[in-house]
Amino acid sequence: MNSTPEQNGADHPADQQVVVSLGGGDAQDARTVFDVLAAAFDSDRRPGDLPDASGGARPTVWVITVDVSGPRPAATPARLSAPVTVDAQGGYRAVDRLRDHLTGVFAVSVVGTAAGDQEQEARLRLENR
Fold this sequence. Notes:
By secondary structure, this protein is α+β, with helices and mostly antiparallel strands. The protein has 2 helices and 6 strands.
């Protein structure tokens, strides 16, 4: 007998949380994307906890985890200095919610996806509208 409470699909963390990572690129563009996400969703970052470039020869990767179960009103379009590539990993519905929100802010194209049993990873390209 299993003593773990049963979870339906809508309550499963993978269907609510998305791990978003941005690699390379400009620190200000990463801040812009993080600001858009923080304005729309609860996240693992405190307000004002913005990404910084690590410096040195190694590449910088910025990561934020957002809870997409209760999005706030859509943000206004934001400006990027160059296109940004975002990797989003989470449940299928959660990644779709994230992409839908970003589409209201940026021009979004799906560059690729990797499908799992209950989660997916989507590579998105964000550009100015």
